Amino acid sequence: MKIGFIGLGAMGSGIAANILNAGHEVVAWNRSSGAVKALGEKGVKAANEPEDVLAGDALFSMLASDAAMRDVGLDGALLDRAPRGLVHVNMATVSVAFARELDRAHKKRGLGYVAAPVFGRPDVAAAGRLTVIAAGDALLVDRVRPILEKIGARFVVVGDKPEQANLLKIAGNFMIASAIETMGEAVALARKGGIEPSVFVDVMTNGLFASPMYQTYGSIIAERKFEPAGFKLTLGLKDAGLTLAAARELEVALPLASVVHDHFVEAKAKGLGVKDWSSLASLAAARAGLKE
Amino acid sequence: MKIGFIGLGAMGSGIAANILNAGHEVVAWNRSSGAVKALGEKGVKAANEPEDVLAGDALFSMLASDAAMRDVGLDGALLDRAPRGLVHVNMATVSVAFARELDRAHKKRGLGYVAAPVFGRPDVAAAGRLTVIAAGDALLVDRVRPILEKIGARFVVVGDKPEQANLLKIAGNFMIASAIETMGEAVALARKGGIEPSVFVDVMTNGLFASPMYQTYGSIIAERKFEPAGFKLTLGLKDAGLTLAAARELEVALPLASVVHDHFVEAKAKGLGVKDWSSLASLAAARAGLKE
Amino acid sequence: MKIGFIGLGAMGSGIAANILNAGHEVVAWNRSSGAVKALGEKGVKAANEPEDVLAGDALFSMLASDAAMRDVGLDGALLDRAPRGLVHVNMATVSVAFARELDRAHKKRGLGYVAAPVFGRPDVAAAGRLTVIAAGDALLVDRVRPILEKIGARFVVVGDKPEQANLLKIAGNFMIASAIETMGEAVALARKGGIEPSVFVDVMTNGLFASPMYQTYGSIIAERKFEPAGFKLTLGLKDAGLTLAAARELEVALPLASVVHDHFVEAKAKGLGVKDWSSLASLAAARAGLKE
Amino acid sequence: MKIGFIGLGAMGSGIAANILNAGHEVVAWNRSSGAVKALGEKGVKAANEPEDVLAGDALFSMLASDAAMRDVGLDGALLDRAPRGLVHVNMATVSVAFARELDRAHKKRGLGYVAAPVFGRPDVAAAGRLTVIAAGDALLVDRVRPILEKIGARFVVVGDKPEQANLLKIAGNFMIASAIETMGEAVALARKGGIEPSVFVDVMTNGLFASPMYQTYGSIIAERKFEPAGFKLTLGLKDAGLTLAAARELEVALPLASVVHDHFVEAKAKGLGVKDWSSLASLAAARAGLKE
């Protein structure tokens, strides 16, 4: 198939490369040209204009936020130039409200829209080991399924409304953020009682909580190595905001999510925005009067 | 060795059986006689009086709470009758303050005191697969280490003050309770957005959160099968209370732990005390206006 | 002066009547015509089109929300038809972000914009006893000051950026909502301990908390008379949402405000939306297992 | 009447003086002798031993905490020496659980026990303007009523169980602490939006919240003058702990009270223990990234 691709950031580059490796033709556009050039050496064709990515069998996009998608016109202006019947697979973590708006904007123009956000970091994307959460019209999902199955190690269809995939992703991100905050508080308690953080983390994350996510963040928290950031706190704040926005819209009270969001706000206001989002734990330590 | 044992509840019975199977002699006392009789068939000797368990090389105890230990006199009256030099290994989840009091009470009488709380449910105890967290004087810990290693699949020494083992256990329990509450909130959000809870839980607990604890509780929450209780909500409330008591004493602010504790209180006040502690999730659903 | 007026709800009607009584000419428009007719008998002139209110010395508006203002075109379309130099005094409680947008929209068209939200219920508005919080360019504020001083018993200028008046109003509303939630919790505690709610409320609101606000809501909470609603819970939820929106934008963590907001969401999801916002207290009672 | 008095701190001294001024004979004991000497000049007789205060018609006590009362033996040892029929009026803010224990301890010895905690600061106590909250057996309360009416400007009987007076006092203290935290958050929001704190506080505390409590603390918070402490943060933490202890015992979930308690813990851990308890507001400002 011939695939258009918008958004070659750390995540998008790995995904585009895997689509290419699966034998498809990829035409890509990115705001800055460096990433396009790097992929060009592997065989990805550079689009001069965003419009050039609309000519294929499907359009994939992986941008940073609702705002970034609006900037490119994926909420309207660019769609106006797309041929009827084109399927757009949006892998970005966008808000539930924007997902719904995008679905309508595509339907109105006779375009197909599938949401397919992913779990996994850039290295996982590059390795083709993402978990892909898809939602949308079943026929559309089936059309792009062969490609999505090459992108990830796991492929789950969650419903026929695109925003449901985004909601699942958002609820999942909340679970990660809450686990980080929880470890931060538990480690602060243990540490103030004279327990070595690494001992505590080792017991918990090699026992009841033996999963890669806990092990990764547990280790960062025990060692207090919040730089360089694997995932910046400002992005964690953005995601926590998406959780609360979805909760407001659906009228769901989420007490823990509210606490976690407030801690992200506090952390950013105190200058931790560029550190890893697990630096929530340094606030927890400070709340106990512990010094770095 | 000859081991005295107090407390043959669901946990204690499995542990005592494993000590016996490891080739030790076990003399046991329990408030109700049924459990002693059952173990008697396997070779455990019945003590007529609590005092009879003091004659061995070490005394193990596994009672339900600070109060249960006081009732038996393990905070003083019974200790008065113990021979100098006896080592008492306390496997109960007691408060940090009581652990410290017990340590002093033993020292004053020339007795040894080791705290060795465990992670694991009764079936894990019976299988000898517990995680044992020990703390106390290093020489004392070494004396009972051969037995503790038979009780569990994992044995960790966390410090030389007995209360540190209890603190680790308490902090770990908070992590579990917080994970349960988090899943309850995340599932409520997903469900109100039209996502099937089992789909959401399956994605998360076979991905980033692929650990037995998440899988067990995720499945209970998705199916809303809070009865019969694997671990009663009233016990979860007790443990959440121990977390906050330790936090008060050590002066550690724990915002998430406070929310979780309040939810346990609310759940008990609303009549969920006898259900599984994961029925916190049914409150989360109710907060979203979802019906059972 | 000749004053245009948009929005003759319970608040707007009282305000418009007071402007009239102060000797000014008032031309008013309202979506439904009943209120205009009622005021017409007092001397207010009815505008056939929203446009007809733009011809005076100043335009006053008092609409329910950001959305209601957009519906009428006060964010753009209607402003396009206003003569340069017109001053618009917006008394609505709108979001800080929308206040900023409105200021820009007016400036761009050569119009003046003053924010003048108020504290007080409809009966207070009718009596001309409101507290008026104004912000905007000092010269503009001075032009409309004579009218604003007739509307309220108290008139405070808070800054030269219109959104500051809205922020003060929003922060003030949070204080009221927090006081209600606090009384709800305190009364639940006292009541479960066997203290008569009216005794507790009487002691507190005639002592340290002897202000009309506490007395009004304290009495409602003690008697559990949440209907008819003086101020609907859905409106309380809207205001709590404005508080958190301002906090997000300004990067201020507000732990209490987040709890209060979650309780409004929970209350609405549980069907209390049409009751008085002080029915937050009935959730607090339910959390203690108390029955109505 | 002849009145024994224990506890001549800042509060007790003022109260004892007012009892004396009302024409009663007062025999007082205090751990340190300075206060006794000062009152001696006014006519209060010094007791050499705590026991000497037991010989009058009633015993009044005003000590700092549960622990201080135990130290003096008012939970048992000293009571053993009291003549049957003596009425003990305890004005201290003690825990609900301890109030219940004290009631039993008195009954067992044939002594009367009345709880009579007060609202008001030392200057209010000296002026005889306290609010006195009494609870206990109606006949006993009537016997000491003439004296309690001289101590305060307001006298309220809340129930026939002594602990109810303490519960009311504790719930009332929570209302104050919550109001302080609320103002701290609201001022942080206003201030980060460029509003002068004193303007915001003036609007609110001379309007809807026009009560002395809001005015006093609003002014401290606006000026950030947290020293010298009128009421130390460590005492606020103690009171917040009493609120949560009562809530635990009565099984009442108090989300706001839990947040406020955590903030007191955080404040103490960060070194604010000796400042005024309204320095909670400096944490709120710091959470918004505002500098002192």
If you had to describe this structure to a student in words, what would you say it looks like?
- Four copies of one chain form a homotetramer.
- The first copy, chain A, has 292 residues and is of the alpha/beta class.
- Chain A folds into two domains: 2-160, NAD(P)-binding Rossmann-like Domain (Rossmann fold); 167-287, N-(1-d-carboxylethyl)-l-norvaline Dehydrogenase, domain 2 (Orthogonal Bundle), CATH 1.10.1040.10.
- In chain A, 52% of the residues lie in helices and 14% in strands.
- The first copy, chain A, contains twelve helices and nine strands.
- In chain A, the strands form two sheets. In chain A, strands 3-2-1-4-5-6 form a six-stranded parallel sheet, sandwiched between helices. A three-stranded mixed sheet of chain A has the order 7-8-9.
- In chain A, helix 4 (96-108) runs antiparallel to helix 7 and helix 7 runs parallel beside helix 12.
- The radius of gyration of chain A is 20 Å and the shape is elongated.
- At the A-C interface, helix 10 and helix 11 of A face helix 10 and helix 11 of C.
